[in-house]
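ok trying again, last paste got cut off:
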Amino acid sequence: MTNEVSPEQAISVLEAAGEKFELSPEVIQRLIGLSATSYLQRMEEDEVPFEPLLEPEKIMPTAVVTLICSLLEAVNMNLFDLNLWMKPPSRD
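nice, full thing came through this time. structure:
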């Protein structure tokens, strides 16, 4: 007998834990890292990009900004660095 969990089951468990704020810092850190890496891989491989959030209206802008700022700090970047990534170079 195997203890494998389907992706849907794992998401359901995480959603339930997240609603109760029972995720440990280590679990959150691993999820963010895996999510960021997986998102980049898919964006590079897929011909049609997809939005990073399934239901963006359910996530508070404060939560998004807090995560973005913390991620930038974690990888030693600042808003100037981010601006360089956001704007493609001019071809003039």
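cool. The chain is about 60% helix and 0% strand. The chain has a mean pLDDT of 84.
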